[in-house]
Amino acid sequence: MNKFIKDICSRIYKNCDTDILKNKTILVTGANGLIGGFLADYFDYLNVTYDYNIKIFLTSLSKEPSRLKHLLSKKSVKYYSEELSSGIEIDTKVDYCFYCAGYAQPSKFLSDTTKTFFLNTNGLYKTFDSIYKNNKDAKCIFLSSSEIYTMNETDTSHKETDFINLSLEHKRNSYIFGKIAGEMIVNNFRNLGCNATSTRVSLCYGPGHLYDDARVMSDITRKGMSSDIQNIKLFDDGSAFRRYLHISDFVIMLLNVSLYGKNDVYNIGGKEETTIYNLAKIIGNKFNKDVKKGEVNNDVITSAPKKVWVSLDRYEQEFGVLDFMSLEDGMDNYLNWFINEFAK
């Protein structure tokens, strides 16, 4: 296991009681992505370091998932290449399912809107339905997104109980509508007595994504490390506000609400606010490059929310205030991993 990821797994273990996962079977869909891949690593870490004896089932679309290649030869791991937009049939008992399938990168979900919607609806329903048929006591977790708040313009943080504003004209509506419909499917399962939860994830970052990840942080980091690029040029003025959440804090929060949460939906996000420009400056300083502001010139940027800010009141009322990793420390961890992983 990569040393940076192993260190993060150690931090998670010290901050979240996961004894309940011993001897369980866990399914992670979308396991070739940042979140799914890191969950796979963490469950493997529990097996290797603390003898949890977890059976780990992983799925993604890729026939050869490079993110998971270090896990595929392990006896505790089974990998399946699946097209999840039409759902899958689970022929064994699963105790926990983390449904991470779906495009999290705006450039991808904007380019394939139909599949984006069905991954979060049809695929989700058929996967959960198959799991509950085999084990009515299973726990299923759907990774929704803070993107559902995109059209809720407000000066306060977004709460899980807020009404959601929608528009059929918005460029990201296939993703937003898919996540909302996915949450509705989760609630329908809850109404049938099933143990299911939605988590509205906001701006998770950290070690573990693929090199060609198209999100803004990884795009800027590639520009920073590239010897062919003199300056880091942004797509716009970088004034959008973001509260990034390090992957270790994300997993701590996700596992707490998944294993012990009492509510149907939770926001999962960070607290320390920055702008895209200031984030780029951190990356630029790491690689000794200047950052140049640009002008808005593509659908990914123009459709993005100006400010992303979710309330963590519900989480904190149940689990207390998390000692978040600072953006400075989190970015140092991320950038050192990126250099170690991808520098030629």
Q: Could you characterize what this model shows?
A:
Helix content is 40%, strand content 15%. The protein has 344 residues and is α/β, with parallel strands linked by helices. It has a single domain, classed as NAD(P)-binding Rossmann-like Domain (Rossmann fold). The chain has a seven-stranded parallel β-sheet with strand order 3-2-1-4-5-6-11, sandwiched between helices. The radius of gyration is 19 Å and the shape is globular. 47% of the residues are buried.
Remind me, CATH topology?
Rossmann fold
Helix content: 40-55%
Task: Estimate the mean pLDDT confidence.
Answer: 91
Which geometry do the CA atoms define?
Answer: globular
Query: H/E element string?
Result: HEHEEEHHHEHEEHEEEHEEHEHHH
By CATH, the architecture is named: 3-Layer(aba) Sandwich
How many discrete domains? Answer: 1
Alpha-beta classification:
alpha/beta
Number of helices: 12
- Can you identify the CATH superfamily? NAD(P)-binding Rossmann-like Domain
Kindly estimate the percentage of residues that lie in beta strands according to DSSP: 5-15%
Query: Span between N and C termini?
Result: 20 Å
- Can you tell me the residue ranges where pLDDT is under 50 for at least 5 consecutive residues? none
Give a quick account of the main beta sheet: strands, pairing sense, barrel closure.
7 strands, parallel
Count of extended strands:
13
Spatial ordering of strands, largest sheet: 3-2-1-4-5-6-11
CATH class: Alpha Beta
Whole-number radius of gyration? Answer: 19 Å
